[in-house]
Every structure is written in structure tokens, then in C-alpha cells.
Amino acid sequence: MIDAVDDITISNDDRAVVCFDGKNNKGIIADSNDYCFAVSPNSDAVTYQGTTDTEQFKTISNPDEFVGISAQSDRNDRYSPISHVGYEFRIPIELLGRSDNYGFFVSVYDSSLQKFYSWPDLQLNQDFQKISPSKWGNIVSPDKTMPEFGVPIVILFAFMCIVVFFTKTRQNTWS
User: Fold this and answer.
1) Is the pLDDT of residue 5 over 80?
2) pLDDT confidence of residue 49
3) DSSP category for residue 91
4) N or C: more exposed end of the chain, with fewer CB within 10 A?
């Protein structure tokens, strides 16, 4: 969620963009594991994928279960009593791949001031598509806190459980 509390003049030209480098390889040119998600008030969200050429990003179909919305805050907003624009994204982790560290970039464009705000702060005067992933920051993901076991480990564990079960059952039968 992005709460643009400084953007109090809501326009259809306002925009928020969130970008992830799935492998965090910090390429000079965006590659196929780099994704950006953009949303503006009163318009559909758009998904971009890196292309490894000078275009940097191409528009692709929004992934299943992806949501990108923008709306005006109301008086019950806990961050600011002044009405402002807010952006919210739900990005499927399967698209990026599970990792504990991603390249990350976020930008908000306030069209009334013709100003970009970003993290990391890159003093932008242009759209996100010209920003190299090598300049993006990092974000740590709590989603990778549990180890993911491969199929052979799971099969070995299941086999060991079966052996223990039959050993215990056999011992109880003999007693």
C-alpha cells in the first residue's frame, strides 16, 4: 500500500509504480525477471516485464490474482485527515519467485506538481521505464522464512515415518 499523503489534488494522470527484480541480479538493463506494476486513479492496473533490450519494459497481461487499485482516502484514514490518493497492490509471489531478498523500486507521480517521488530517492524527472534495475534498492521478504524442501527430502521423510510406524506396530504386536 502506498499512501501519497502529499498528493491532495487527485488527477487521472497521477500514478504509482512498484517494481521488483525477482532474482535481484541488479542488471543494467531490465531482464525477464524484472516486473513493474502501475496504477492510476480511474484506470486499470498495468503489468510490465523487462525485455533485455533498450526498450527496458514491455506491457504484458496482468497475472492471475494480481490486483492494483487507486482511490481517494476518506476522513477515517488513520494516516492523514486530509484527503489524498492511495494505491494498493496485491502481487502474486509465484510471478516473482520465492526469495528472501528482491530488488525493489517504487515511484509516485503527482501530476498537479509534475513531480516524481521515489524510493530509493533517485531525483527522478522521468518515468520508471528509464530507470536501470541496478539503481533499485532491496526489500527483504518474510515469505522465505521457512525452508522449502525438495521432493526427495519429503519422500525420504515420509519413508522414515512409515518405517517407524511399522516398527512400532510390530513391537506392539509382539508384546
Assistant:
1) no
2) 94
3) -
4) C
Nearest to 6 by CA among 76, 106, 70, 80: 80
Per CATH, the number for 2-144 is: 2.60.40.1190
Question: Exposed, middle or buried: residue 56 (CB in 10 Å: 0-12, 13-18, 19+)?
Answer: buried
Q: CA 10, 14, 16 angle in degrees (round to 5)?
A: 120
Q: How confident is the model at residue 23 (pLDDT cuts 50, 70, 90)?
A: very high
Distance of CA 133 to the CA centre of its chain: 14
Which pLDDT band holds residue 145 (cuts at 50, 70, 90)?
very low
d(CA 155, CA 162): 11
CB-based contacts of 26, cutoff 8 Å, min separation 6: 103, 133, 134, 136
Q: Kindly calculate the radius of gyration of the chain based on its CA atoms and give it in whole angstroms.
A: 23
